[in-house]
Amino acid sequence: MAATARILDFLRDRRPEGPCLVVDLEVIADNYRAFRRAMPDTRIFYAVKANPAPEILKMLADMGSCFDTASVPEIEMALAAGATADRISFGNTIKKERDIARAHALGVKLFAVDSDEEVEKVARAAPGAQVFCRILTDGAGAEWPLSRKFGCEPAMAVDVLMHAHRLGLEAYGISFHVGSQQTRLEAWDQALEESKAIFDAMQARGITLKMVNLGGGFPTRYLKEVPGTGSYANAIHEALTKHFGNAIPETIIEPGRGMVGNAGVVKAEVVLISKKHANDNHRWVYLDIGKFGGLAETMDEAIRYPIVTAKDGDEKAPCVIAGPTCDSADVLYEKVPYDLPVTLTVGDEVLIEATGAYTTTYAAVAFNGFSPLKSYVI
């Protein structure tokens, strides 16, 4: 997504100092409406971690969104934005027992689990709560896979949910995440097939599961085209019908990147352009923002952001792009060099597009004394 006219006007009129993120609320509102139209029977739980700006949370709460949270502070942010506790899920499978108790005291009733030990914590701290078990997926087709740290093997989910039932919790459903920035429309099919097998196994034990949490994974456009929201919705509906027939369960989704990614633009500045030896064909372009300033998702060059300059009409050549900190890991693109104008020089501004998600939250610490990324929501 190119920077909106509202963002460009803001940067021109305000001239903010240093690197900053500018987010256009109108784009997020359009994205929410697109999810609502495409999946009218599915509840939307915005993944707060993607961008927890109060303005974003309030607008989404006012529009009727629910919220997927990873911590007590995120739960409190969602409540402060106007969401009621029945619209909040504690979706992290790694929770301190006292945090579960705090969430329960605040009225949250829906918790993610993926092990017997986590079930036992929820049973002690939030008796009677609803739990859904997260299962592992392979993450194929995702630019930021999430397949190892969270979830259990599908075959283990029945035991986890039965344990929850025996401890007085409501075994409510299954969740999975097909990987962030998922580009394969069919990615949900296998996970839904496995979910149906778990539903059947639980039914055979006398327990009816009610919900499938389809997770996130909905992409935003970076350098490559991605399918539209409607295409994902159609593929998911086909998979649900294929595996569940007419008995389609309650479904929820947890869009984060797909909700806010294309709504933000980072304004940055060229600090230095250099070469490493006399005959070096690759310039090194150093920006005043890097991995530790909000662009952590360039790790392993997984996310390749569109970078726009005022000189894009000039000849371009490959270069290495790096951040400003005294850490050798603060290199954004080197394995696959990035084409930038040969006329680019020190002091030039660049716009890093599609940076509305997972930037400010990764830039919360002033590493090397560089200020955390400033954010403006318009």
From TrEMBL:
The modification N6-(pyridoxal phosphate)lysine is found at residue 49. The keyword Lyase applies. It catalyses: L-ornithine + H(+) = putrescine + CO2. Its EC number is 4.1.1.17. Pathway: Amine and polyamine biosynthesis; putrescine biosynthesis via L-ornithine pathway; putrescine from L-ornithine: step 1/1. It holds the Pfam family Orn_Arg_deC_N. GO terms for cellular component: cytoplasm. Its cofactor is pyridoxal 5'-phosphate. This is ornithine decarboxylase. Belongs to the Orn/Lys/Arg decarboxylase class-II family. Residues 28-260 form the Orn/DAP/Arg decarboxylase 2 N-terminal domain. It comes from Aestuariivirga litoralis. Keywords: Lyase, Pyridoxal phosphate. GO terms for molecular function: ornithine decarboxylase activity. The active site is at residue 326. The lineage of its organism: Bacteria, Pseudomonadati, Pseudomonadota, Alphaproteobacteria, Hyphomicrobiales. GO terms for biological process: putrescine biosynthetic process from arginine, via ornithine.
